[in-house]
Amino acid sequence: MSVGIRYPANLFGHPTDKRIEAVNSELQYWTNHSNVPVTKVVFGHFPMSFTTSSEKGQRYESVFARQSVSAYLCGHLHAKVSKQLWRYHKMRTTEGHKSSFWEWELGDWKDSRLLRILAIDGDAVSFIDQTLKQVLQTSILVTYPTDSRSMNMLVSEEWSMRNDINVLVFSHEVIRNVSARVFDSHSEFKIVEEIPLQLVASSSAQRPLFHAKWNAENYKSPSPTRYWLQVFVLDSHGVKISSEQRPFSVEGKMAIPTSPWLNYLVFEVQWEDMYQVLMRSNMAFTIVLLFIPKLLYHFVRRSSSYQRWVVSVLSSPIQQKKAYFWLVWFLMEGTRSNPFWFCMVIYVLWLIKMPWFWGHATSENGEIAQMYLSGWSMPFHDGGLTGNKLGNPDVLVITLPFLYLMVVPVIVLVYSLFAEKAIVYLRHSRRIEYSADSANMHVESAYLLPVAPGALLMKFSDKMVSAMIQFCGSWTRRALLLACLITAAIHLKLCSRLMSAYGMVPVALSPPLTWMPLLLLGSAAYCTKLHAD
Please, how many CA atoms are within 13 Å of residue 120, restricted to the half-sphere of its CB? Predict the structure, then answer.
């Protein structure tokens, strides 16, 4: 990105139109200035799933497809999140031609010591990955035929079958023997053929290439995973090493396996677009959660039918079993406290348009910047300008956890606390109505819309309304208070991470992010406790 935002809001690569055009020109140069076909491999830090579009909406994928790139190598995600993610991009160029390229993510060298050995054999690109936690062991890289699951390319009209087996063997020891075995998966992986490989005379210690000829026609099959290849190496100490078995297709067919859901989520979802979907859907749900129950309660209250409806349903065991009643009643009861409802509405509107918190976005002693839902805003020293929407959509690592784990749960918990208080008064009113003279207890509406709820509990002894009962109430209330404590703990955890990233003092002094969720939960818990007076 043009302005380097500190972790964790540095999740995406931000290419410019100028940079994308530079890559396109470099790739086109080799097409124009080569008399033979050129195999093109591109290396970058960020996966395509975490690379944004340029100012004009351009993307690298279209460039790679147009320039017939074979593979794009990337990292960024680290092995703790992912390891060896592969993605096959199939695209159609602006000229209408089909094109494709592989995207191969490795992991990281920093913590996991992952190492990739990549080879280009004609137009075939192959690789092996190893963990270099110790001295590099003997490594076997089959450069042809390639793995049909992760290395085969879209077959072109110029493609022709090759009768070659090529293997690179890297070892500190002298290699005595190299052989390849072909297995048939349709016959319980029985050995079909064993082929000895010979060291190519022009090979050196840096390029230890072993080669053999075979009849590729024998291995033509409709299934790209029927035949499997494994290479065995014997060194001068008598140690036998083997490569892993892998399927191949002499016809260039592909058998791309289905990605696990986590791999798909991380590597194949375009998170620039997904952020907008998740953020807008959350805000829409939050607005609906605030306004629809309030409007419904307003119209019902004006018709004076709300109290009669509640009493009729509570009097009918059949109606009480209907889930929609409890949902509607829960939502309307939650919006009846106007002070809390207005506070939550103002808070949500603030989060949409106003800054969430302040912090040192670029360095420990850098300028104080403001983080909005749309990104960071900070002043530039050149010309006194202000940069807006910086680090967008990188801020999703901050905004999405807060919206989904804090804002919505806080609103639901506030609603729940007020609904739980109302149901307690409803139960008390029904008990008193059944046990007392109906003439003296004809005040149902007062209990349903309690103005002075303490008057009800004056009829109970002081022993029944101890301090613990006042605040904790029933088991339902205790569960709600426990949920409030868990939500508060999650909030403090999120805030502590932001404080360590962008400075303790500015983040701690940012009320919208740091204080408001705790104030709303604490105030709702206090205002909904039972009164003994």
Answer: 11
